Amino acid sequence: MSTRGLVLYLLSGFSVSVVSVLFLRNNPYPNSNILHSPYESISTDKVWPELEFNWRIVLATLIGFLGSACGTVGGVGGGGIFVPMLTLIVGFDTKSAAALSKCMIMGASASSVWYNIRVPHPTREVPIIDYDLALLFQPMLMLGITVGVALSVVFPYWLITVLIIILFIGTSSRSFCKGVEMWKDETILKKEMAKQQETLVNSRGELLIDTEYDPLVPREEKSELQILCFNLRWKYLTVLLLLWVAFLLLQVLKNDVAVCSAWYWVFFCLQFPIALGVFGHESVKLYKKHKERLSTGNMENICGASIEWTAVHITFCALCGILGGTVGGLLGSGGGFILGPLLLEIGVIPQVASATATFVMMFSSSLSVVEFYLLKRFPVPYALYLMGVSILAGFWGQFFIRKLVTILKRASLVVFILSGVIFASAIIMGVVGIEKSIKMTQNHEFMGFLGFCSSQ
Question: What are the extents of the domains in the chain?
Answer without folding.
Answer: 33-195+227-442
